Amino acid sequence: MKLHQLLLTFLISSLSTVAMASTSVLFIGNSFTYGWGSPVRHYRASTVTDLNNEGIGGVPALFKSFADQAGLDYDVYLETRGGAGIDFHLENKLAIIGRRPFDQVVMHGYSTLDAQDPGNPDKLVSTVAAMSDFLRSKNAAVEVYLTATWSRADQVYLPDKPWTGQPIENMALDVRAGYDLAAAAPGIAGVNGVGEAWSRAMASGIADPNPYDGIDLDKVDLWSYDHYHASHYGYYLEALVVFGNLTGLDPRSLGVNECSGYELGMSRTQIQMLQQAAYDQLAGEGRVEASPLEVDRPGAALRCN
Questions:
Q1: Residue 298, pLDDT above cutoff 80
Q2: Which pLDDT tens digit goes with each residue over 7-48?
Q3: Residue 1's pLDDT is what?
Q4: Edge-to-edge strand order for the sheet containing 188-193?
Q5: What are the sequence ranges of the domains in the chain?
Q6: How far apart are the first and last CA of the chain?
Q7: How many Cβ atoms are within 10 Å of 163's Cβ, its own excluded?
Q8: Whole-angstrom Cα distance, residue 260 to residue 156?
């Protein structure tokens, strides 16, 4: 083969490799990302890269499963620590986080915005800005998404808590307001309205709004047994919102035979209604457009394998 033919072959091969390059996404968070209190914690851990080598699958593995089913090529990484805000990762984990640049990053802080001063967004705003600056120093084009987390039942229904006696959706709205302030930092591509999607699921009748008085028939409990963390239903809904926001795809297009819901023991109705809650939140913010629903293929077990 002549030299110019060799060069042409190399160029075509290189361009093909670039065209097929996967998108890298890093999840930075705490137990609300790694799935504490549910089987999601170690779910499909082999499909993602845990930068702390703790065998976590969590919400990142659910996102990876959704992306694979949608035909998207994602390399998914995570760096998590229970009970931590973004300040912890800034102080202790930049050497790990900064080993490589990422195309997209999903991150969140403590569930009450500030562990020492619940409801105060100041720490979240400052730490989001600092982490975004660091991530952009590795890749100026990185897209950073902030996950606004859910109302904690233990903060609403138990006495002497910051949101005691308020409607269950209020905490999620307060948390979202804090994340909206933080989203003004350079490099922030959007906010994942997870807490508001939870509220939609409760309003639609798929999820029970108060686990302390029992779970109504045919409703799911989005919280785990501590009424603080999420159940597998709650983390599933979180992952659906993140998936739709990062990819722009209608979560309902995954269909009622979606693999991870099947593997986690959900019914088709539960899968469908959780996908609908995620879609309603994303569409309400203009993050996705309605797409024709996938014609579900039979045999979810075969598809998952």
A1: no
A2: 444 444 444 433 457 999 999 999 999 999 999 999 999 999
A3: 47
A4: 49-50, 74-80, 23-29, 104-107, 143-148, 188-193
A5: 22-304
A6: 43
A7: 22
A8: 30
22-304 homologous superfamily:
SGNH hydrolase (3.40.50.1110)
- In Å, the largest CA–CA distance within the chain is 81
Q: Is the pLDDT of residue 303 over 70?
A: no
Confidence of residue 294 (pLDDT cuts 50, 70, 90): low
Q: What is the structure's pLDDT at 7?
A: 47
User: Residue 160: CB partners within 8 Å, gap ≥ 6?
Assistant: none
- Residue 305 CA to residue 301 CA, distance in Å, equals 6
In DSSP notation, the chain reads --HHHHHHHHHHHHHHHHHTPPEEEEEEESHHHHTTTSGGGGTTGGGSEETT-S---HHHHHHHHHHHHTT--EEEEEEE-TT--HHHHHHH-HHHHTTS--SEEEE---TTS-SSSTT--HHHHHHHHHHHHHHHHH-TT-EEEEEE-PPPHHHHSSTTSTTTTS-HHHHHHHHHHHHHHHTTSTTEEEEEEHHHHHHHHHHHTSB-S-GGG-PPTT-B--B-TTSSSB-HHHHHHHHHHHHHHHH---GGGG-TT-HHHHHTT--HHHHHHHHHHHHHHHHHTTS----PPP-PPS-HHHHH-
Indicate whether 124 pLDDT > 60: yes
* Alpha-carbon gap, residue 252 to 240, rounded angstroms: 9
Average pLDDT, the chain: 92
Q: Nearest Cα to 28, choosing from 64, 73, 75, 81?
A: 81
pLDDT of residue 11: 43
